[in-house]
Structure formats: C-alpha cells, structure tokens
Write a structure and sequence with these properties.
CATH architecture: 2-Layer Sandwich
Distance between the termini: 14 Å
Oligomer: single chain
Structural class: alpha+beta
Helix content: 40-55%
CATH topology: Alpha-Beta Plaits
Order of helices and strands: EHEEHEHHHHHHH
CATH class: Alpha Beta
Number of helices: 9
Length: 210
C-alpha cells in the first residue's frame, strides 16, 4: 500500500514526533542527547528551518518547526538518518533506531503554535518525571522563559511576540514572561492539550501513523 504524501509548502508549521523502534530508547545518555541537538542545529541551518520548541524524552522526541522552503521530508531524512548512524556507531548497534516514519501534524501558526509550544515542554511533567518543566534540561522551556541561553537553532522571538500582543490588549508582556512567571502561569492552561487527539483541533492535515 502506498504511503500518503507529506503535505509540504512554504512557511508550513509542523509538530513532529519520532519514536524509537519497538518503543526502545533513542537516547541512552546525555552524550546522545547533546549529539542529537548538534545534528538538529546543522539541519536547521542547512534547510533554513525555524525551530520554535523541542523536547527530548527517552524513547521519542518532539519538535515544533517551520519550513520557509517547503523541505520537511529532506530535513527529517537528514536528521533521523545521521542520528541513527551516530547512535549505532557509538553503541555498536545495527538496524533501525526509529519506528517507521516520523509523525508530522500540520499546525495553524496563529491559532495553535503557542499552545503547542506549551504542550511540548510539558511532556516530562505529564510523564511524572519532574514537577516543573524548568527541571528538564532537554527542552526549550528554560530558553523560552529567559532562564538560560538557548541553543543556536532555537527561535523564541515569535512566541515572545505573542505575549507582547497580549500586553497591547491588556495582558502580560515579554518582561512579565521573563521576570514574573507569566510563562509558568500560561503553562497551566495547556492541560487541555494533553489529549493525544489534539492534532485534529490544530487543523492537523498530515497525521499519518509512524
């Protein structure tokens, strides 16, 4: 049976999830995680992606990326392919690391990108690994909240601009996000996205199973 084509167009935004084959871990230690982030940085630069959020779990990862040049498939082939080679070489393994195709849900930027950024960084909290997302080193939370300098591939400008828009309409501004915990308070509102079926709400057009 022919697999459905990926929907790709300029400036598309995707929530990407990739899981380990047979639910196996894809990161065995911090060196693996650092290596993956280095490869991701290279992919973002090479394919002109915009990465708004990320979270690395043990057996899967989440990305929220924008593709100005309509090249999601090529970038993901590079990301997962190069990481698999590096992982297998380092751990003396062979074969597939990831479970089939990655899942890419098309996202409406203005309506849902901010909510998805929250959803992504809350993953380790929902998994009960930590109590607060700032305690998870391997996500974009702390960089977005201004608690540390983020990796070069991460773009936080658009997310922070949404708080600026709120301030213009009487809500919280960027300074409040970074100094008074507005990002934390808004994370509280993300609980409704814990339902795995949220992709349909986000206008997800490409939710082919991995």
């Amino acid at each position: 049976m022919t697999r459905p084509l990926r929907i790709e167009y300029e400036n598309a935004v995707y929530h990407i999830t990739t899981r380990g084959n047979a639910r196996q871990d894809i990161f065995l230690d911090d060196e693996d995680r650092l290596g993956f982030l280095k490869i991701l940085q290279d992919v973002v630069a090479r394919y002109n992606w915009v990465c708004h959020a990320y979270c690395l779990m043990s057996n899967h990862y989440h990305l929220l990326v924008e593709t100005p040049d309509a090249n999601l498939s090529r970038g993901m082939r590079q990301l997962n392919g190069v990481y698999t080679q590096a992982f297998n070489r380092r751990h003396d393994r062979v074969g597939h690391l990831f479970q089939g195709r990655y899942k890419a849900i098309l996202v409406e930027k203005e309506g849902h990108l901010l909510e998805l950024a929250r959803y992504i960084v809350l993953n380790p909290v929902r998994a009960k690994l930590i109590r607060h997302p700032r305690d998870w080193r391997w996500s974009s939370y702390r960089a977005t909240a201004g608690e540390e300098e983020g990796p070069k591939f991460l773009t936080v400008d658009w997310i922070l601009s949404q708080f600026h828009r709120d301030r213009e309409s009487g809500g919280e501004g960027i300074s409040e996000v970074r100094q008074e915990g507005a990002w934390d308070r808004r994370l509280e509102r993300a609980s409704r996205w814990s339902d795995p079926r949220y992709g349909a709400v986000c206008g997800g057009a490409d939710a082919a199973a991995s």
